[in-house]
Amino acid sequence: MSSADKNLSVFSTDGLPDISQATFAIVVAEWNHEITEKLFEGAHATLIRYGAKPENIIRANVPGSYELSFGAQVFARKIEVDAVIALGCVIQGETKHNDYINHAVAHGLTQVSLTYHKPVIFGVLTPNSQEQALDRAGGKHGNKGDEAAMTAIKMLSLV
Ligand code: RBF
């Protein structure tokens, strides 16, 4: 069953932790920036909506999604950072590199998370087209940036 008609950003908000003192780093890939900017706006708005202070949200850009792992590592190793959100968009079909980039980022972010014992959230869209990307960046399927931020908040309740 496909998710063609679903807003994928519908999630439960029961029992969320207090994040008023938490510090988040959002690392944003500049490739497909018209998409990743919307992901950032969604992630930032969700963190604020659920209690994060604007001054406790750090933003950093990296050139492309492949660089998200290193960008995430830079912040995960900082003692004051509680969670890292990595945002990118790798459109399939535009490049045969997509599988390599996606796998490398997924693996890299997992490694950073386990190494620094902090939530590192995979907010990388892997759509087949620009249209599918827009659908997931504030369009009919919601905003994956929102979801990534909510995932970070939920994971903090474990730490
Ligand atoms: N980065 C992305 O974030 N999204 C892409 O769709 C994307 N496509 C790429 C296609 C090719 C052929 C190459 C060489 C790079 C691409 N990148 C993309 C950039 C990649 O993540 C990284 O910034 C560069 O490979 C430099 O390490």
UniProtKB/TrEMBL annotation:
Top EC class, one word: transferase
Keyword Transferase part of the UniProt annotation: yes
UniProt keywords, alphabetically: Riboflavin biosynthesis, Transferase
UniProt catalytic activity: (2S)-2-hydroxy-3-oxobutyl phosphate + 5-amino-6-(D-ribitylamino)uracil = 6,7-dimethyl-8-(1-D-ribityl)lumazine + phosphate + 2 H2O + H(+)
Matching Pfam families: DMRL_synthase
Claim: Transferase is one of the keywords in the record: yes
EC code(s) of this entry: 2.5.1.78
Annotated binding of 5-amino-6-(D-ribitylamino)uracil, by residue: 31, 65-67, 89-91, 122
Family annotation (InterPro entries): LS (IPR034964), LS/RS (IPR002180), LS/RS_sf (IPR036467)
Binding site for (2S)-2-hydroxy-3-oxobutyl phosphate: 94-95, 136
GO molecular function terms listed in the Swiss-Prot or TrEMBL record: 6,7-dimethyl-8-ribityllumazine synthase activity
An annotated GO cellular component: riboflavin synthase complex
Associated pathway: Cofactor biosynthesis; riboflavin biosynthesis; riboflavin from 2-hydroxy-3-oxobutyl phosphate and 5-amino-6-(D-ribitylamino)uracil: step 1/2
GO BP field: riboflavin biosynthetic process
Organism superkingdom: Bacteria
Catalytic residues (positions): 97
Family: Belongs to the DMRL synthase family.
HAMAP family given in the database record: Lumazine_synth
Function in brief: Catalyzes the formation of 6,7-dimethyl-8-ribityllumazine by condensation of 5-amino-6-(D-ribitylamino)uracil with 3,4-dihydroxy-2-butanone 4-phosphate. This is the penultimate step in the biosynthesis of riboflavin.
Protein name: 6,7-dimethyl-8-ribityllumazine synthase
Species for this entry: Arundinibacter roseus
Top-level taxonomy: Bacteria, Pseudomonadati, Bacteroidota, Cytophagia, Cytophagales
